[in-house]
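Can't paste images in this forum, so I'm doing it all in text. The chain is below; anyone willing to post the predicted structure tokens underneath?
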Amino acid sequence: MKKLFSVFTLLTLSLILAACGGEESSNASGEGDGEGNGNKEITIGYFPNINHVAGMVAEEKDLYSETLPDGTKVNYQYFPDGSAFMTALETGDIQGGLVGPGPAMNHFTSGAKINVVAAGSTGGTVIMARNGADITTPEDMPGKTFISPRVGCTHDVQFETMMKEEYGITSSRIDGQMKHVTGKPATYASLFKSGKVDVATVPEPWASSIEEEGTGKVLVDTPNVAFGETLPAAVFVTSQDLVKNNPDMVDNLVEAHKKATTFIQDNPDEAKSIASKKIKEITDQELSQSVIDNAWERIDFTYEVEEKTLQDFANSSYELGFLEEKPNLEGLVDTSFLD
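Text version of the structure:
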């Protein structure tokens, strides 16, 4: 199936990425879509992270064309962070895809009409310390600067939850002792090298890349980060309008996503090759086989999702001041398409 691409800026390297966009926009609500209608167009979004390999595999193997009605045009768009992804979903620029649970929950509690219909992966968050920053344990963090992709993103909440609960240390955002800045994970190695940040809460494969480059070391590995092995590192989301008005399409999207996840589980070596190729294509950064292999060990690829885990994570977001009201995620997760 032919994929149409438009320009989308992702990284600070002035990199131009291939993203989606045709002359005709997709129907975000799905209203008017008829089963078997071959004139429709959808756009799927994801990030160039190892946690989002299911999106890469689905694109490379053209799996959505196997489950959607014949003639459906499938586009792909790549995102630098969850906020940009969620904005695109809410405006109808994309119809679904993979995003971190943090942005999904934050937008849902702010009134966004979305549903989490599957998970993408768990694990993959690593806390890295810059070489030469005089940090040997998290207790050395007061007065230091840490970086995350966005304020309140999944990796930020995981790090700040761990720091507060385990060490009683909080960020300056809530009158604490750690300075917080944000930036794209692919740039963390260079920021470590320049000494601009001391600690990073890093999604794979960028943690393994930092290890290999030698600019930083693992401070806290995945199992010991808050929600490190239980929280979905990526969730598949779509709009409630699409769920209500075109459940057949959502069923098709989830089926393709399940096929991609199963492929990863059954064919890890080929899935690694696909991930390496797509990350190079999207970010212009080539990862070694050892980086991919190391990152893979920290991640479990699964489409199963538990609402309770997401609720516990959302409660932490509230306790850290990322959410103004205590969240109620009832209605966010819809596992009926998995069942």
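Residues 247-266 form the longest helix (20 residues). The CA atoms of residues 135 and 146 lie 12 Å apart.
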